[in-house]
Amino acid sequence: MSVLQSVALLLVAGVATSVVLTRDPLRQAMVASIYGLVLGILFFVLQAPDVALSQTAVGAVALPLMILLALAKIRSDE
Amino acid sequence: MSASTRRTVFLIAGAGLLALLLYSYAGLPDFGHYRGPYGDILNRVSIPERQATAVVSAVNFDYRAIDTLGEEFILLAAVVGVATLLRRLGGEHEEEPDDETTGRHVPSASVATGVAGLGVVGPTVLIGLYVVVHGHQTPGGGFQGGVILATALLLVYLADHYSTLRRVGPMWLNELAEGLGGAGLTLIGISGLVFGGAFFENVLPLGSMGKLLSAGTIPLASCAVGLAVSGGFALMVSEFLQQTLVVRSDKGSQQK
Amino acid sequence: MSFLPFAVAAWVLVVGLYGIVTSRHLVHLIICLSVVQSSTYVLLLAIGYKSGGSAPVFADQPPSPRAVDPIVQALTLTDVVVGTTVTALLLAVAVQLNKRHGSLDPDDLHPLRG
User: Fold this and answer.
1) What is the ipTM of this complex?
2) Is residue B172 less than 8 Å (CB to CB) from chain C?
3) In A, which residues are within 8 Å of B131 by CB distance?
4) Which single residue of B102, B181, B218, C30 could bond B136 by disulfide (Cβ 3.0 to 4.6 Å)?
5) How far is CA B216 from CA A35, B146, C61, C94, in A?
6) What chains are in contact with C, requiring at least 3 Cβ pairs below 8 Å?
7) Do A69 and B131 touch (CB under 8 A)?
8) What pTM, to 2 d.p., does this model score?
9) What pLDDT is recorded for position B248?
10) How far apart are the C-alpha atoms of C82 and C71, rounded to whole Å?
11) What is the DSSP letter of B54?
């Protein structure tokens, strides 16, 4: 197993832990975007370009966007 | 049960679950020693049988197209759920987003954002269409390209006002795209049944490897899924945006 | 060392579960749920990997027996997109819950209330 794969895997574990430990949802949306990017890198290193494409497009863009929109609506309702 | 009690109980249970998972994963073949026959078989026969060079898309849209149909309908159901949950309820009304109310001066998005955003929309649409249509040859396909196309619509909102997004991507267009995509995929499956004898049988001429019109129904299925995914995502984000920017509670406005 | 991918998949699952159990905000809970889902993607791709393998795309190279498994990649890629859609549905539920009850703390949201 190459060094690149080990580093990518450890990075995924680390960023996942930080996603969970970030309690404020607004900050967590940003960390989730970074998590999506790191996952995309891991999928690419594991020779899966299709999966990396969809993960990067979805996890780094679409998901944080919807979280932010939901938070904006929640905040304006309070 | 208080929060700290819950945490302690989970830490014990979580440690047990982690140990169980690690023990069960240790029974898998070592990382890098893939054993199963099906992946190797598909890699070998995908080009002779279907003239498709991207095996993952061939699996998604031909060999296991019925699973893709199922996932497609999960997506449809989730989008219908979002549209239902975020509809305008009794006790709410719609009003113009804050940047359109007359008499209110709102600083518009900076010119740099507007120019950069609108300049990137065209290439993004082109890249999205390229990824969708070339799904059978290069990494890509309907799912990835559909998300890229939906992102292109979002860039319009980021670069300009919400009203521009409404004009460029109206709700009925998103709904139409999503419905057509789902119906298109089902029709491809049924045509395989009618003309070929099996659901999702590849009935169109296979062409030769490397050409755009090759691999039979795979590029068509990829386009149908791309249409459905882009329509679905654009619809969901439009619903969220509408709920955030336009729908207001009647109680709040009465207090003003 | 070759056990690292499976260990990371198990760790991410348990850490996500910890986030769900100890969450105090519904949106935080939903994001932790998507983290739990992502652990299955890592597991699937780790199962299909071959040492020194190449991507299962043969547009520029002849089909080789060293290409990694395409089936798990097909499963994972539809899962990624559809999982995000379901997460969006959960976020819409959270928005409506906030309108009804005014709070998003899971402890305050009792199920049996008219």
Assistant:
1) 0.92
2) no
3) 53
4) B218
5) 37, 21, 22, 43
6) A, B
7) no
8) 0.91
9) 76
10) 17
11) B
